[in-house]
Amino acid sequence: MDGWNKLSSSLGSINFAQAGTKFSKGFNSSVQATKERLGQVAPDEITELPQEYKDLEARVDALRTAHLAFLKITKVYDSESYDYPTQIQESLSELSSSISYNLTSFAASNLKGTNLPAPAAPAPLPAPQHKTLPHALLRSASTASNALAVAAGAGKEDSLGRALALYAQGWEKVALARLEQDAAVRDGFLQPWQTTLNTSVAVAMKARQAVKASRLELDAAKQTLKNAAPTKQEHARLEVENAEDDLVQKTEVAITLMKTVLENPEPLKNLNELAKAQLLFFSVAAEALSTVQGEIEELAVAAEGEYRKSRDH
Predict the structure, then answer these.
(1) Following DSSP, what letter does each residue of 147-183 receive, concatenated?
(2) Using CA atoms, how far apart are residues 89 and 134, in angstroms rounded to an integer?
(3) pLDDT tens profile 79-124
(4) Interatomic CA distance for residues 21 and 252, integer angstroms
(5) Looking only at Cα atoms, what is the longest distance across the chain?
(6) Is 11 buried (19+), middle (13-18) or exposed (0-12) by CB count in 10 A?
(7) Looking at per-residue confidence, does 27 or 238 come out higher?
(8) H or E segment at 245?
């Protein structure tokens, strides 16, 4: 009985007349939109929005498109391995090692206290390596240099091995700068750039949708007035006036929001942060590689001189 009383109370609080009016307006707007899409409404029967509104619409659309297009490319900074040459192969190898380690650890812990021989303790997993092209070049050059040094023997120096060691030193600085660049790009550009899309631009787009819905409602009301019986014309005329007021209000709100989006200085500041992060990275890279390149060039000149000298004898 209490449940029925609650249900009756809830039903009693609903304004069915108001709900019916909203449904009717929504239905009429949908019919109006369908007729316009099918070309069944004359152009002069479609309410013209202010030119300022239409100009702002075009500019906001262009701004949104520019944000999305640029974000599509710069989004790579979210992934450390965007320039890594062998990430797939190494990822599979790392996954296999991880699975093997976990299985061995599980077996070792669960076979304790039983008569079954426990497997040897698994070797610890190697420390994760950064997957960037600078780090790959650093590791590759270091490995090659060490191999040449071992082959040359104690107390002897291989020129190419020495040059590769210098090359690795340069790329060590570049690799560190690369990580710092990516972090700066994510914090100073990607996150705020995406925030602009998700907040101010999205709010402006929502306001434009409200204008479109209001305009359809107005034109549907005009059609209702046009076809209304004499006894219903006064009510239909009031509906048109209310719809006109609503459209004017929503259009003004949308214009204000679109102007706010277009005048927002944040995208320019974000782009500046992106350029600053990239400039710093390339500056560090240029300085580091310029230093080691000079030393490598000296080794190359000396090696060429030795080679020519040996050929002359």
Answers:
(1) HHHHHH-TT---HHHHHHHHHHHHHHHHHHHHHHHHH
(2) 18
(3) 999 998 865 455 544 444 444 444 445 445 555 556 556 555 556 6
(4) 25
(5) 119
(6) exposed
(7) 238
(8) helix 233-263
